[in-house]
Here is the input.
Amino acid sequence: MISALVIFLFFLYATLDAVALLPRVAGSYLGKNGLGYTFSVMVQTLKRVFVVSYPPLLGWISVNGGELYSTIYASYFAGVLGVMLVLVFRLTLAKYFIKWIDGYSVSGSMVYAVFTHTGPAENFPDLEAKKLSFKFDGALVFSSSWVYFVYGTALFFINLFGAKFQEHSAVIYQLVGIINALGTLLMSFYLDPKISRNFDHQSHVIVSNDSVLAGQLIALALLGPVAIFLFSLLA
Here is the structure.
């Protein structure tokens, strides 16, 4: 039961993380980058609720002798599914954000924007044309994969180290805050400026979004599981 909850919370975290750039895509197409960024911050804030929710449950599994590794691998699988869903429906989701951002800019009410502007926005042929088109910026894919690797894997490692060195677990588990801070620094000072620079050139908006999603997939499907597997061999 606890393992299933961890997997579900990680799925929500990974999915919201993948969604977080789409408000900025919408804001860019509307010429309202400020509001797009604000909506993106809202999604990021909601994501952080789930980021801090699953590590204590992993600690509970560890303390009670549960199977950490199977839970972690299943969490990665669920996270990959979440990102894949966002990748497939990314432009439809962007159209929803276009409608909500436009509604908020007119009314100044979040409730009005979300609950009266239902359905995706129409008349955005540029987005429709890119629905089945995928192009990537290799440098951005590489950068985002390592940043999301830190976010998605470090918290798992903390619990594995806590289980391995139980006499120091009280100290090890307190590192969660430090790891979150490190991930935030990498995002704010390294990855986010690259994304913002690309978003200033509207022709690069979808490429940047897709590149970040590809980086997240690499982190969740490859870098994270491989790192955990190598640790299991050494532990």
Remarks:
- Residues 205-234 form the longest helix (30 residues).
- Residues 2-234 form one domain.
- The mean pLDDT is 84.
